[in-house]
Amino acid sequence: MQLDAFNFDSENDLPLAAKLRPKSLNDFFGQANIRPQLEKLVSFPRHVIFWGPPGTGKTTLAYLISGQIKRELHVFSAVTSGIPELKKLIAEMLDRKKNFGKESILFIDEIHRFNKSQQDALLPYLENADFLFIGATTEYPHTSLNKALISRVSLIELKQLEEKDLVLILEKGAEDLKRPELKVFIGELAKLSNGDARFALNQLSRLQAYDRSELDDREKVLKELFQHARQYDRNANRHYDVISAFIKSIRGSDPQGALLYLAIMLDGGEDPEFIARRLMILASEDVGLANSQALQITTNTHYVTKQIGMPEARITLSHATVYMALSPKSNSAYLAIDSALSFVKENPTIEVPGPLSNVSPEKKNYKYPHSYPNNWVDQNYLPKDVETKFYGPQFNGSEKALVDQYVNFTGKKP
Hints:
The chain is α/β, with parallel strands linked by helices. Helix content is 50%, strand content 6%. The protein folds into four domains: 31-157, P-loop containing nucleotide triphosphate hydrolases (Rossmann fold); 163-226; 237-326, Zinc Finger, Delta Prime, domain 3 (Up-down Bundle); 345-410, DNA polymerase III clamp loader subunits, C-terminal domain (post-AAA+ oligomerization domain-like, Orthogonal Bundle).
């Protein structure tokens, strides 16, 4: 597909990333996997949301599509504007369509910043095709956007750019800056920029502040450029990857791995209360009856984290993380409730046995355990014909002691 050239502002004071914004798809590097989808968008325009990491070309594609299908592009930022500004812009677009026959594209950047009511305000216009809608988001759309909005658009995922694509982009940048000596940094910039073309070009621009003698110490220059360049986007793919690795490290009893991923999250600005909540879930799901004190430890951790906040909360979170990783593990409680729930869902209404009922005449047959030795008496608590066992003991840590104690005073296995 050959996209027509689109005239972008190329004033000298623009950031390098803006000056080098591609004017045709031939100049658009990377994302080869979505080229067929882009061709269909141009041939059969439809509402679309591009989602993926920063600096991968979401905004650029909106401009390129606008140029190819020859529709006016109206850019709207969900970060700085709200419903009143959006309604005003839409009214202007509809007026231009009615009075001048000009079709428009509404491009909303960071669409996930809109709340539910703001997203809902778009729905009737999308339904009636009053204009073409293009959205962009760095967050996973199925968790950050309304289902009603998603059902009216196509979702196209953009991936981090490969190093080879960043190299080509940076080479163009060095040529534009007329600083050929900067080309020796291109390999490192491409490698360290996390697939983000905008970030890579910004770092290349920063190199202009160094004189030639300073550039000779490449290791020092790169350390200065990238000391704050670590990537972590809350609610985006890396967020889910890191919390997944954190959970699996604790489940696998590896305190070193768990601490590493905890540090990555804290360094990236993750909500410490989110981490504390995940620890509480782990306490019952993965540590469980093998060490029931873990639930108390993590509950206290959540309270402390909420009360004192960062940076001090890092110590409490570390305390709970190491404790959980070192604890014996059992998921018997987790498996037990899921088994019971499945049984309930797969069967008709389950009747409570008469002796356990509060209204049945048979309630007089209930045996009060505290009236018997060891506060236990053998009686049936399951409905008739229910023979399924939901809880299966696992003999780790304190759960073994609990099961042994149960066997001792009941004379039967749980």
